[in-house]
Write a structure and sequence with these properties.
Oligomer: heterodimer
Structural class of chain B: alpha/beta
Strand order of the largest sheet of chain A: 22-21-23-24-31-30-29-27
Shape of chain A: elongated
Number of helices of chain B: 10
Strand order of the largest sheet of chain B: 5-4-3-6-7-10
Largest interface: A-B, 25 and 45 residues
Distance between the termini of chain B: 29 Å
Structural class of chain A: alpha+beta
Radius of gyration of chain B: 21 Å
Number of strands of chain A: 40
Shape of chain B: elongated
Helix content of chain A: 25-40%
Largest sheet of chain A: 8 strands, mixed
Order of helices and strands of chain B: HHEHEEHEEHHEHEHEEHEH
Distance between the termini of chain A: 40 Å
Chain lengths: 794, 311
């Protein structure tokens, strides 16, 4: 039991007044000569006793009246968990009083002994009641007596991606009272949060959290409202569960035991949908509330994905870019912009970041119908060698601006040198055409192809052996004789090679050449050719094994089974070698990658297998041989290191920018230079530049929370960089109805639509039961009793 | 009638003057002549009216005039009156609060003496002989009944000399009085009839004995009027709060809460007086309930009515 104003309990001291009156009134009665005293003598004995008892009861009533009045004025409060105990005490006391009344009646009736017995029992009961009450008062947990006890509340604002969505409050939209302008959802959420913080009882502690990477803000009272302004939409929200756990940990450090956690959200599917699928229980048993702010989100159109036909096009080769659009029906203008390669930009001038200017190179118009998506194709003109930054933008004014633009990088490299070694001219020609073909039909190709015969191999190998690693050609050995893949004359083990095994080989162990004779990994350089393996018609076919850059472009629908293989070499690879493809029937390797000492791809059946000898081996270059065609190109690109494309990462993930990309473009030891140089990274949207250094030729940057192009300056070349985009896919602006939120969330959480509905009283905090009203009733009853007794005793 | 009120009479010191004031004031207030016609000496005639006693018709005048006339006379017979006054200490106290000198009201004894003197005066006017008896621890016959003119002053002087003190043996006094007297006397007893001395504890017994003593008087062929005089405070019990009540005679004191005892006391008193009234009624004894706040005419009227009955 606690009191609103304990000081008023001092009023109990006023019981001294009736006691004093009682004692004073006993002194010196007036003396009156009275002859008729005989009429007083008879009733005197009975009546004086009754009168005395009445006097004592009157005194008791007056004391109780004053004590009860002081008690009522002090504003007693009882915790609901203490209620039963105090009820029991009250019952004991009432029984004691009733027994005293009975004792009085018995005494008046002349049954003194029985009255004494009853009175002594009543006295014991009274003592018990007082002792029990005193113990409960001393040992009971204090009840929060102030009208609104301060609480400790952790508030998590759901400033995830969709909080940038423009909308208006559902209440405004429905009631149509104040047709407000559309504002970002975040502003509505922050306004709601500010209202919530203002509505908290005085002295409350607030811990504010958002879904970005900002640390928790702890504040007493409403001071935290200032921190709300710093909350912005985060493009890369942390998981709600982690944030709630962090909040719970922090809130538990607050001394106030009345703790709460509140999630303020617009409840979009992209915002809390994933979390709602499996919401954890209330963190650390702290009462959890969800304020689902009803926001009517506006219409949106956005870019869901872009797909470059060739992210590493040859110089001056146009590239087609397929842009996927989705959203509300209507006409949209799509524009492709390319940033100019200005070596002096970006730079800080007069406190402002100046980015390289972008110029529009293509634009088109598309009409979105229904809720479906549509695709448009934009053409990027041929670009010179280098890494180019570009972006696709939607020129539209919709409710969600974040998905109206996507950035990307295009890596234009000089053609890689390829040497095809083969004795059959027509077959060589086919491979040359395969490699030189351009997806866009341009004259320029990604490869600079030369062809020689096996007789010139030794000379050619000698000529290339001392050239720098960057200009080492990729060797393609078609149906090589055994000597061409082992021994000093072979490029295998020195340069990147692709060996198309054919009938010219003989079974046996192939020991590959090495540039590092001191290497002790001798076994790793061996390859066992067991024998040729024949497969009766309809033959076997190739099956990709696991994920590899060469086979990743193929999907399950690729018709490998339509390209049969009848004869192939059975090869036993070493443990370090990797099997990229195998044969469906025998499980023998079809495409093997060996790394030591130089990268080499082994194809265990000849290609294109069109001459007399090799024609029986397979039908891979038969009708509709596009998988084989793509396999060869992918393999050569892989060997030529052309598969490394420019970097484009999803928002929030760590971007790594290998300087090896630049090393292919610009000459010499940029890598070594970059490791020692401090570079400058310019994030988009005018954020302040930051110094970065490369480590082992790779620049890594983890703070990719902003969308757009991150520029890296400081290298001896035009500024390069990487692009950060939203995850592919359509950002949906669907909100989850409050009923669904309630049904999915655990039962101990409270889901409300406005802060007025929030219940701060939890099971842990005993409910306060004000006792003032019953106390005033008791006072009134005692007052009436006192009046009746005093008037009767006159 | 303020001139007859005890409060105003108390300002007159001489008892004879008091008595005269009382009686004259009383007689002025009477209407008609219910108290005339007790004399043998002819006064005058008047026409017979309906309701007049036919015995009083003067037949001689009827013979002469053929009309009915009634004879009117001076008092015819004499009644010997005895004034028996209780002189116990309880008659002489003011039942007002201690320290509060109440000079406006009489004590019971003063009231009785005043009333006795007034009756003496009245009886003397009628030429009735009046005797005086003081009832104390013993009965004292102070003056024998006489009707001569100077007797009034003797009686008044004797009353003035009386002092209330000690106890009273009312029963013994009355018994002795009845033995002492002949027949056809009018005994007027002035007392509060409170038990005294040995009988102080038992009201009922005292009442029984008192009534029996009175009955002896009555059965002795006398008329008896009992003036039961109480103090005004004894009748109204105007006390509040804790008060110590003292008995003037025995010195006994009890402390009670007067507020709480008021009803009980008044109940007891009413019961006593009712008992008194009923038993006196049974014996055909006239009982006049008085208190010191009442005017005297009640008492005087009672005497005259009794006088008429006996005439």
């Amino acid at each position: 039991m606690s009191f609103l104003n304990v000081a008023l309990l001092a009023g109990i001291a006023a019981i001294a007044v009736p006691i004093a009156i009682h004692l004073l009134s006993r002194r010196q009665p007036k003396r009156v000569p009275f002859p008729s005293i005989v009429f007083l003598q008879k009733p005197f004995e009975v009546h004086s006793t009754r009168l005395k008892i009445r006097k004592w009861w009157l005194l008791a009533a007056r004391i109780a009246l004053i004590a009860a009045a002081a008690f009522a004025l002090a504003g007693p409060m009882l915790g609901s968990n203490q209620f039963a105990g105090w009820i029991a005490i009250a019952v004991v006391m009432m029984i004691a009083v009733l027994m005293l009344v009975v004792a009085t009646v018995l005494w008046s009736g002349g049954r003194a002994s029985l009255a004494k017995a009853v009175a002594s029992i009543a006295g014991v009961a009274l003592l018990l009641g007082f002792a029990w009450g005193g113990y409960s008062l001393a040992s009971g947990a204090p009840v929060q007596t102030s009208v609104d006890p301060p609480i400790a509340v952790g508030i998590l604002v759901d400033n995830s991606l969709t909080s940038a969505w423009l909308g208006k409050r559902e209440a405004d939209a429905v009631e149509n009272v104040t047709p407000s302008e559309s504002v970002p959802s975040l502003k509505i959420l922050l306004d709601t949060t500010a209202d919530l913080i203002r509505s908290l009882p005085r002295g409350s502690t607030v811990v504010l959290a958002e879904r970005g990477s900002a640390p928790l803000s702890v504040s007493l009272g409403t001071n935290v409202i200032g921190k709300l302004e710093q909350i912005q939409t985060t493009n890369h929200p942390s998981s709600i569960e982690a944030k709630l756990r962090a909040l719970a940990r922090r809130i538990e450090q607050v001394e106030n035991p009345n703790r709460h956690i509140v999630l303020i959200t617009s409840a979009t599917e992209d915002g809390i949908g994933v979390w709602l699928e499996d919401p954890a229980a209330s963190p650390n048993q702290i009462p959890f509330h969800i304020v689902r702010v009803g926001i009517e989100l506006g219409e949106n159109q956005g870019i869901t994905a872009i797909d470059l036909a060739d992210p590493t096009p040859p110089p001056e080769t146009p590239v087609a870019i397929e842009v996927e659009l989705a959203g509300a029906p209507g006409e949209v203008n799509v524009e492709l912009e390319v940033f100019e390669s200005d070596p002096a930009l970006p730079a800080t001038r007069d406190g402002k970041i100046i980015y390289p200017p972008a110029s529009a190179v293509d634009r088109t118009t598309s009409v979105l119908s229904g809720r479906g998506s549509s695709k448009v194709v934009l053409n990027m003109p041929g670009l010179p060698i280098g890494i180019h930054q570009a972006r696709v933008t939607l020129s539209t004014t919709d409710a969600f601006p974040l998905d109206d633009s996507r950035s990307f990088s295009v890596l234009v490299r000089p053609p890689s040198p390829v040497v095809i070694v083969g004795d059959n001219e027509s077959e060589v020609d086919i491979l040359v055409k395969t490699l030189q073909a351009s997806p866009t039909g341009s004259a320029t190709s990604s490869f600079e192809v030369q062809s020689i015969e096996y007789g010139d191999l030794r000379l050619a190998v000698d000529g290339q052996i001392n050239s720098p690693a960057e200009t080492q050609p990729v060797w393609i050995l078609m149906d090589p004789p055994t000597w061409a893949i082992r021994g000093d004359d072979s490029p295998v083990g020195r340069s990147p090679c692709m060996v198309l095994m054919g009938p010219s080989l003989q079974a046996g162990t192939i020991t590959r050449q090495t540039n590092a004779p001191e290497s002790k990994t001798g076994d790793a350089r061996r390859l066992e050719l067991v024998r040729t393996w024949r497969v009766p018609p309809p033959g076997s076919f190739l099956v990709p094994q696991g994920s590899h850059p060469i086979t990743d472009p193929f999907d399950r629908s690729t018709p490998w089974s339509a390209l049969p293989v009848f004869v192939h070499w059975q090869v036993e690879p070493q443990s370090q070698d990797r099997v990229i493809m195998s044969f469906a029937s025998s499980g023998h390797p079809a495409l093997i990658e060996s790394i030591e000492p130089a990268r080499c791809l082994w194809v265990t059946t000849p290609l294109p297998a069109l001459n007399k000898v090799s024609r029986d081996w397979n039908d891979l270059f038969g009708a509709d041989a596009w998988p084989t065609w793509l396999l060869i190109r992918n393999s050569v690109e892989y060997l030529a290191n052309q598969d490394a494309t420019a970097t484009s990462v999803p928002v929030g993930t760590t971007a790594s920018f290998p300087l090896a990309l630049l090393s292919q473009l610009a000459p010499k030891a940029i890598q070594a230079e970059a490791d020692a140089t401090t570079l400058t990274l310019y994030p988009p949207e005018g954020e302040l530049p930051a110094p970065v250094t490369a480590s082992e030729g790779v620049i890594t940057w983890s703070q990719t929370d902003l969308l757009g192009t991150y520029w890296i300056r400081g290298l001896d070349s035009p500024a390069s960089g990487f692009a950060v985009n939203l995850n592919e896919g359509h950002v949906k602006g669907n909100t989850i109805p409050v009923g669904d939120v309630r049904s999915k969330i655990s039962s101990d959480a409270e889901v409300v639509e406005s802060i007025e509905e929030l219940q701060w009283i939890s099971d842990e905090t005993p409910a306060r039961v004000p006792l003032s009203s019953p106390a005033i009733l008791i006072v009134a009853a005692l007052f009436i009793t006192e009046l009746a007794m005093s008037s009767k005793s006159k | 009638m303020t001139v007859l009120s005890p409060e105003s009479l108390r300002q007159i010191k001489r008892l004879d003057l008091r008595a005269r004031m009382v009686v004259q004031g009383f007689l002025q207030g009477l209407h008609g002549s219910p108290f005339q016609g007790f004399s043998v000496q002819f006064a005058d005639h008047r026409r017979y009216n309906r309701g007049d006693d036919p015995r009083l018709i003067d037949w001689l005048v009827y013979a002469k005039t053929d009309k009915y006339f009634i004879k009117r006379f001076e008092a015819e017979t004499n009644i010997t009156g005895y004034l028996a006054i209780d002189t116990s200490a309880s008659m002489g106290v003011h039942s007002s609060l201690a320290g509060h000198t109440d000079t406006d009201t009489m004590t019971k004894f003063e009231y009785c003496t005043c009333l006795a003197a007034a009756l003496t005066y009245l009886m003397t006017l009628q030429q009735d002989p009046v005797g005086l008896v003081a009832l104390g621890e013993r009965m004292r016959a102070l003056l024998p009944p006489r009707s001569r003119r100077g007797h009034l002053s003797e009686v008044v002087a004797a009353i003035s000399r009386l002092e209330p003190k000690g106890t009273v043996d009312l029963v013994g006094g009355l018994s002795r009085l009845s033995a002492m007297m002949g027949k056809n006397s009018l005994v007027m007893v002035f007392s509060d009839l409170m038990p005294s001395g040995d009988q102080a504890d038992d009201v009922e017994k005292h009442l029984d004995e008192t009534i029996s003593a009175l009955s002896r008087l009555k059965h002795g062929g006398n008329d008896v009027i009992v003036f039961h005089v109480l103090d005004e405070a004894e009748v109204n019990f105007p006390f509040e709060g804790p008060i110590t009540f003292e008995d003037a005679e025995s010195g006994e004191a009890i402390t009670v809460d007067a507020s709480g005892f008021r009803d009980v006391y008044l109940d007891q008193l009413r019961h006593f007086r009712e008992s008194l009234v009923s038993r006196c009624g049974d014996l055909n004894i006239d009982l006049v309930l008085l208190h010191t706040g009442m005017a005297f005419d009640t008492a005087l009227t009672e005497y005259l009515l009794e006088r008429q009955r006996s005439g």
